[in-house]
DNA sequence: GCTTGACGGCTAACACCGTTAGCCATAACC
DNA sequence: GGTTATGGCTAACGGTGTTAGCCGTCAAGC
């Protein structure tokens, strides 16, 4: 990816991070770089390709934010939620709707899921259930689905306690 | 809501149910009723108002689908997942993104959540964690985020077992 | 019976969207 | 020095939600 392409992806990331996916417009993106929209097509085939690069970038960010907390369930959950709250639009972009897997850098999706797999002790069912819980909590919070004033820390603790319970203890 | 308005909402529901939210276009909606797009604005202030009515309708549907399974956790979970898989686009519409609460029929959101609250034994933390898990499982499945061939029944069982565990037994 | 007004359709148009076609200046390379 | 790739540009197309303004129908009131 040439230098110009990286600038475009960075600008697109900033645009989404600030105003959400709907703010990412080819014209707005061009304007941010002092360029007209059609010129962007000299670097990317279409808008979806730019978005895919932003997703790749965000997944690497998320993996990086999770890595230091790997090993401890509640720390990992806190780091996961913290990233989502810090970058709600990026979180939504990479974790909602169909994923353009064929456009993503290979391995990046697995890398983001690795800490969770590790904390689940290699039990895929447990890992998937945990992932669903964490994603559910985060996305419902981001979308304002919980009643205003709801004690979400408490709900998180309750859920994590259930998963940490004696059902299937970590094998390591 | 007059007769014509109901026809519009029904057509909109059908359009979304068949092809997803993106298929709901004011022009397509009009065409389905033998009418031009601008005429729709004689019945609704904008597209968002039509969508809000469809959301209200879908929430009532979901509540109706959940009611027979109330009381039993795994039955309730099965009914929840079944509705989502039967009407993925409607599920996404009503459970993703910001909710236009001020446009929804009052009480409809609570009614859809009631069976879950009941099965959680009145424990709001437990109810929220369960909701997050169920929504997470469903939306990740709908979005194709799980690996192809993943045994999701098994993941559901694992998660439900964790929540049904001795952490906080039902109080009734 | 005539007038008035609401209702519910219509066309034309605007601003914005992603995208394509085609032109052109610069710069590197043989 | 000519050739070619790079990376800009304008103009335009078809699609989107939405607005303005026109007009036929039909019921109510005088």
Please write out the topology.
2 copies of one chain form a homodimer.
Chain A: H1 3-19, H2 26-32, H3 47-66, H4 73-86, H5 88-95, H6 108-119, H7 124-142, H8 152-164
Helix pairs in contact in A: 1-2, 1-3, 3-5, 3-6, 4-5, 4-7, 6-7, 7-8
Chain A binds a DNA duplex (30 and 30 nucleotides) through loops.
CATH topology of the domain at 51-161 in chain A: Tetracycline Repressor, domain 2
Strand fraction of chain A equals under 5%
* Total beta strand runs of chain A: 0
Count the helices of chain A. How many?
Answer: 8
State the low-pLDDT regions of chain A, or none: 168-172
Q: Summarize the main sheet of chain A.
A: none
- If interface size is counted as residues with C-beta under 8 Å from the partner's C-beta, which chains form the largest one? A-B, 40 and 40 residues
CATH level-4 homologous superfamily of the domain at 51-161 in chain A: Tetracycline Repressor, domain 2
Oligomer: homodimer
Termini separation of chain A (Å)?
41 Å
Q: How would you sum up the global shape of chain A? A: elongated
CATH architecture of the domain at 51-161 in chain A: Orthogonal Bundle
In percent, how helical is the residue content of chain A?
A: 55-70%
Rounded mean pLDDT score of chain A:
93
| Text of the CATH class of the domain at 51-161 in chain A | Mainly Alpha
Radius of gyration of chain A: 18 Å
- What structural category characterises the helix and strand content of chain A? mainly alpha
InterPro entries (chains A, B): Homeodomain-like_sf, HTH-type_TetR-like_transc_reg, HTH_TetR, MT1864/Rv1816-like_C, Tet_transcr_reg_TetR-rel_C_sf
Organism (chains A, B): Amycolatopsis melonis
Keywords (chains A, B): DNA-binding, Transcription, Transcription regulation
Pfam family, one (chains A, B): TetR_N
